[in-house]
Amino acid sequence: MSYDIKDKVTLVTGANRGIGKAIVESFIAYGVKKVYAAVRKLESANELIEKYGDKVVAVEIDLGKPQTIISAAEQVQDVEVVVNNAGVLALSNPLSENALESLKFEIDINLFGLVRIAQAFAPVLQKNGGGAFVQLNSVVSLKSYPDIATYSASKAASYSITQSLRSALKEQNTAVLSVHPGPIATDMAEDAGISDIAEPVTVVSEGIINSLKSGDFHLFPDTIARDLGEKYQSFAQNAILAEE
Fold it and tell me: What GO molecular function annotation could you give as one example from this UniProt entry (predicted)?
């Protein structure tokens, strides 16, 4: 389902830094009407507001606090595109003492947060003609790595939910895009110790714009992600996208 974000009203979670900030800036450069910068602390969006003026409006959303999501959805009834970018990472393998604690934390934000956002904003998108819903997943939603095993599990689960959202939201004419970055130059890449192979955040933000216009369901924006995406393509085409 093809979708052009130009002149649209958008909302981006985790908008104050990293990939989220890049999405805001790329969207504005492309010509969106307005971006709601969804952040946990409103003042963290001040830099974007100072730079872009009334093109950016700060909105409080904490994926771990459901009431902030509900309140935001009630406030921003003109949203046509939702990008759920916010997420958390805890370095933990399955045998770590903190494995269960890490998994609970990541599941609450990366999985439950996605469901909370989808449930709150799907009716808003439907009211405004369908629009688009973009979920930032990861290459680790397809292939797990020991030191980020719990994060990988949370992202595998969020990818599963994203697949279901694609089918559920299709009925209301909402395009759904699942984004699977590899190493990207963010604080999270620093924490994971992969900044030496990380690519610019703009490969993700600009890739989202282009993939929505192309009507894609998957986006593998960087070199490592594309390599895995090519290996996954046959299964995706014959199983995940088979209903088409």
Answer: oxidoreductase activity
